[in-house]
């Protein structure tokens, strides 16, 4: 019999992207991995797709994702597993010159 446990996580939305989430600073989704969380977020808020994914449907190079304080680039990337209650932060890189 399949389990009914769900993994609800909170995605923290940076200020520049909140217009695509109706001003929400956080969005809760059910997901087992970072990739699934981001895909669910984009399904709910399609205007985020171009900000997060490139033309090859890969996470943009300058979008940093953290689970808690851990940058997923130094672990399993978007395949990073999530636990109930995890906070996933989307942090766009800021370039200056």
Protein model, in words:
Residues 77-97 are annotated as: Disordered. The protein has 97 residues and is of the alpha+beta class. It has one domain: Roll (Ubiquitin-like (UB roll)). 15% of the residues lie in helices and 24% in strands. The chain has two helices and five strands; from the N terminus they run ββααβββ. The chain has helices at 34-44, 49-52, and strands at residues 8-12, 26-30, 63-67, 70-71, 87-92. The mean pLDDT is 92.
Overall, the morphology is globular
CATH C-level = Alpha Beta
The CA-CA distance between the termini, in Å, is 57 Å
How many helix segments?
2
Count of DSSP strands: 5
SS-based class: alpha+beta
- CATH architecture level-2 label: Roll
Low-confidence segments, given as residue ranges, are none
Overall pLDDT metric: 92
Strand order of the largest sheet: 2-1-5-3-4
List SSEs in N-to-C order: EEHHEEE
CATH fold naming: Ubiquitin-like (UB roll)
């Amino acid at each position: 019999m399949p389990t009914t446990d769900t993994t609800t996580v909170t995605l923290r939305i940076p200020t520049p992207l909140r217009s695509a989430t109706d001003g929400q600073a956080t969005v809760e989704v059910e997901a087992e991995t970072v990739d699934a969380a981001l895909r669910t977020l984009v399904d709910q808020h399609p205007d985020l797709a171009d900000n997060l994914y490139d033309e090859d449907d890969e996470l943009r190079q300058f979008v940093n994702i953290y689970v808690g304080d851990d940058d997923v680039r130094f672990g399993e990337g978007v395949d990073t597993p999530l636990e109930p209650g995890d906070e996933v932060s989307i942090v766009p890189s800021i370039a200056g010159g």
